[in-house]
Amino acid sequence: MTNLLTLPLAPLRATVALAEQIRRQAEAEYYDPARIRLQLEQIDELRERGEIDPDQAAAWEDDLVSRLYEHREET
User: Which of 27, 35, 37, 42 has a C-alpha 20 to 30 A away from that of 70?
Assistant: First the structure.
């Protein structure tokens, strides 16, 4: 009887579970040290080619390094 009453909520539960899975995957990619290292290298290349100014590069690098530390503190 309980299953019958909660059956209409099944699509909602599935949607919530999918959203949670997507959130976990996005966080894993966002905090991935290898990905952050790659982004730092890309910033360095852009700076060397003169495509971004040093201040903008420094700001992006600060954000990426902060992300690394933030992730280490959480784990």
Answer: 42
